[in-house]
Specification:
heterodimer; A: about 150 residues; alpha+beta; 5 helices; 6 strands; B: about 200 residues; 2 domains; eight-stranded antiparallel beta sheet; four-stranded antiparallel beta sheet; 12 strands; about 30% helix; globular
Chain lengths: ~150, ~200
């Protein structure tokens, strides 16, 4: 009986932790180098880790970036919130002779795809993770400096 | 009895949670499927084959623009140098144009280009055609602009303050149907700007 209760408790903690970890979705980074001996990297990271990681970075390291970002935060917040309501679509696409860049929204995530002669890069970031990460970065700005 | 009551409460709470989640999902799906209008910009480079395609939902622009406070852009309004037209009542001219029948108002013929400004329906139409040295039309270079008069109205709304209310322009674009079109073509590239209800520019 005690073991059953412990099992249920452990299960609840695991489900809760998993839910928290996945609450911001998953960030997917894929890099495929086209050289014969090139690197192939595929990384899947819970989106919640990005703002948490930024939280632990000393303010002094991110103050400048945060200061540049802070004036744009209202616009970024509005953009992220509105993009959640928009259907899947391609926002920007640039096709050159040797390069193809596409920024799109698919299923609640912003995707950036770059294809050039050397490598193919795919980055998929959930909108929720983008919003919370940029909020955390913006909070690193010097509070005594107004822009 | 206690077990039945507990089960009933649990079922009731579960039903409420499911209903809230479903309704929230339906709301989001309805918003995602609601008709929206998109501003498309397409640049095709004739020489190097470069293509740039930009698609912006007007609803997104309406939400973002008022939140930008940078340079001359504040709260969705942008200051444009000196737009003061002095004693010229631009709005009266615009009203006169709007109420007049379709007509060609301005025709300028120069050695290197011809310019035509006309009213067609509810739109202001501008055509610019370049000419070669021998005076013949250079088909590789031309500008065609079709702007609904409602958008011209929105642009000139605050001309006394030398500012353009971009929110008003966006609202006018939302209601303009598919009339707003800008085509600029020269030997190096073609630029097209238009508004429609599709979320891609193909």
């Amino acid at each position: 009986m005690i073991l059953a209760k412990l099992g249920v408790g452990f299960l609840c903690v695991t489900v809760t932790a998993g839910s928290v970890a996945l609450s911001e979705g998953l960030v997917h980074v894929s890099v495929h180098q086209k050289a014969a001996d090139g690197t192939h990297l595929s990384l899947v990271v819970p989106g919640v880790l990005a703002p948490i990681a930024l939280y632990w970075v000393p303010r002094s390291h991110l103050q400048q970036a945060g200061g540049q970002l802070r004036p744009w935060m209202p616009a970024i917040r509005a953009a992220v919130e509105e993009m959640k309501n928009e259907p899947d679509m391609t926002y920007v696409e640039v096709v050159q002779a040797d390069q193809h860049v596409k920024v799109s929204k698919i299923g609640g995530a912003v995707n950036v795809d770059v294809d050039d002669p050397n490598e193919t890069v795919h980055v998929s970031t959930p909108l929720r993770a983008i919003g919370s990460t940029l909020e955390e970065l913006g909070s690193k700005a010097d509070p005594h400096v107004t822009q | 009895m206690k077990i039945e009551k507990r089960s009933a409460v649990a079922v009731g709470i579960t039903a409420v949670v499911v209903a809230v989640v479903l309704l929230a999902g339906m709301g989001r799906a309805r918003a995602a499927n609601a008709p929206d209008r998109y501003l498309h910009v397409r640049v095709d480079g004739a020489a190097d084959g470069e293509k740039v395609s930009v698609n912006v939902p007007l609803a997104l622009a309406e939400k973002v623009l008022p939140a930008i406070n940078h340079g001359e852009l504040h709260g969705g309004k942008v200051k444009i140098g000196n737009m003061n037209t002095g004693d010229v009542d631009v709005r009266a001219i615009l009203d006169a144009v709007r109420s007049s029948p379709d007509n060609e108002f301005v025709t300028v013929q120069q050695a290197d280009q011809d310019v035509r400004v006309a009213k067609v329906g509810d739109n202001l139409v501008v055509h610019v055609r370049s000419k070669d040295a021998d005076g013949k039309e250079n088909k590789a270079e031309k500008v065609d602009v079709t702007v609904p008069l409602s958008i011209v109205d929105a642009v000139l709304k605050n001309n006394t303050n030398s500012e353009i209310d971009l929110n008003a322009v966006l609202r006018a674009l939302q209601n303009s149907g598919e009339s707003f079109v800008v085509n600029v073509q020269n030997a190096e590239q073609t630029v097209r700007v238009w508004v429609d209800g599709k979320n891609d520019s193909n």
